[in-house]
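Good morning C.,

I know you're traveling, so I'll keep this short. The sequence:
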Amino acid sequence: MNYAYGVEFVEVDPVFAIGTEQVHLPDAQQDQRLQQDLQVDRQRYHGLHGTAILSRYPIDRARILRLPVCYDWYGNEYKAISKLEQGRRWSADKLFRERVERELRQGGRMALIADISVPDLPTGRATIVATHLENKCPPACRQRQMQALLADVKPDRNPVVIAGDLNTTSRDNTPTSIRNEIMTRVTDYKFWIGQAVSHFHPLGVFQATLFPVRYFHGYNDPTAWHLPILWDNRERPLFNTLDKFRFADAHAFDFRGGRGRTLPPRGRTLADSNQRGGKGFSPTYAFTRDFGGLVGRFKLDWIVVKPFIEDPRRTEQSYRFAPHFPVTMRELNESVEDRISDHPPMTVDLPLTEPTRSAR
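The tokens, ready to paste straight into the viewer:
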């Protein structure tokens, strides 16, 4: 396949653990071959952490777009972590078996943008964007990163696919301290309004009783309804940005989510480009211990597509290059004991001609 690769980070911490994994097979000959395959050539290992695009079509052009910085992965990770952050990491390890390690590295979040030659399309090309948004930041900073990415690709008149790990946890995962917690509250008007509602208005009791409903309303669905203070979903503004965005040619991202273009048939927002489950979307990341799915599952990875449409939701438009039949391959990913990856693969079908089957 043709490929393009862009470096996001260079890991500068000593990588002591590399090559120390103990994996063995019952068959002695196969085990010997496996041990050879697992050997790490430390002279060639450069600690590069990045993003790739692979394509059976020719890649005409590729470039890297550096996104706004939401977290300093060198300066902040170099500092000693606070007692409060130590407690948070200890709790993650004990409750969910999730070890939060220090990652000292140089670089920053980016998008790899490639124009691929697709003769069957009217434009002769499609633009593929593989991106990775920040996880150690508030959701508002991920929205700023997406806005910067969209501003860069706005002039693009090709069909566009943006895909990757958007880290839509709906949480602020910035390493915390007492000072940070205080400053966050001092500068957050929503916190003070919420305190006022809780203490001086009967609605405060109602707000507290709504907590479980709000939790499950947005669980695995970062696109869910957002109403500040009372029904907060801090990741929704990012999807509002995508929904309202228009390219220079007036085309939009496909949010139609038609039931006839999903398997099993499930409608609603983005259902035709990202597999939905019985509740929300099929999660693309899960803690090692998630208590049966009650907590610790997240929809982090996304595919959004710009086909030949001008309205993100009106069904009476072309379905050429529109997303169809998305699949999140959780079963495949979990077919081995320790999973193939911490994020399962995702696929979506993009027809190069107008589909003849009516599925609206």
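Safe travels,
E.
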